[in-house]
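queue> pop job 88
queue> type: inverse folding (structure -> sequence)
queue> payload:
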């Protein structure tokens, strides 16, 4: 019986690379998407051509708690179990104090924090039964906040605490860890300080989606005595933070 992974925000970019990597490790993949249905369908076709009926697509709005619970229930129903949950989906945009709204709170806190909590809650039974694992995609900004992005940073800091807290609560049956990516892919809307970020990174370059996907695979499959940890995959970006 193949292991099953649910990956949120898996249709494109880093999420799609995580899906491909876990698929290469023999997983059946549940590709979650919201708006990127075409990309998700194309990725599922790609994976199913490599191994028949090894990838399926589920759509859900992660800002809607009821829809998130339905996603978890539907994920369990696909192949009867879930072994690995990767909370990859994330909303990211600036929210300066003077202009942040209640809608911004909902958009950033629900997708980045509440949805991962609900999915872990909904899947806890199958993850326990399968001695499964959860990997949460956090951010270096959870510890060193980015100017004018307070709500995003609050949400990711909360996700870091959720990772540690639920690792204690669900151990020894389920391992829960996090990854804090550094500069991997620039936001599609652009980012004006790209060179400054690279200059402050010890390796002096961007990472790749494969760097994150490899770390996810390691935490999910090859780290049986690791739980409640947050791994910085940032090329040494956090070293610059420590030095001011």
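queue> result:
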């Amino acid at each position: 019986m193949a292991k099953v992974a649910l990956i949120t925000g898996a249709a494109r970019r880093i999420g799609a690379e995580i899906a491909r990597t876990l698929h290469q490790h023999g997983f059946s993949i549940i590709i979650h998407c919201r708006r990127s249905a075409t990309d998700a369908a194309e990725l599922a076709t790609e994976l199913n051509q490599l191994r028949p009926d090894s990838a399926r697509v589920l759509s859900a709005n992660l800002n809607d708690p009821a829809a998130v619970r339905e996603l978890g229930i539907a994920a369990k129903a696909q192949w009867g179990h879930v072994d690995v949950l990767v909370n990859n989906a994330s909303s990211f945009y600036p929210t300066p104090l003077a202009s942040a709204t209640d809608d911004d709170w909902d958009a950033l806190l629900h997708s980045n924090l509440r949805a991962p909590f609900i999915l872990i809650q909904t899947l806890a039974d199958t993850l326990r039964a399968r001695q499964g694992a959860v990997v949460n995609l956090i951010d270096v900004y959870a510890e060193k906040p980015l100017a004018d992005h307070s709500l995003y940073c609050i949400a990711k800091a909360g996700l870091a605490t959720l990772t540690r807290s639920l690792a204690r609560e669900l151990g020894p049956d389920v391992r829960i860890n996090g990854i804090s990516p550094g500069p991997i892919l620039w936001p599609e809307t652009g980012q004006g300080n790209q060179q400054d970020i690279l200059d402050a990174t010890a390796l002096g370059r961007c990472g790749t989606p494969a760097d994150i996907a490899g770390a996810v695979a390691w935490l999910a499959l090859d780290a049986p005595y690791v739980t409640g940890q947050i791994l910085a995959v940032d090329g040494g970006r956090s070293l610059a933070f420590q030095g001011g």
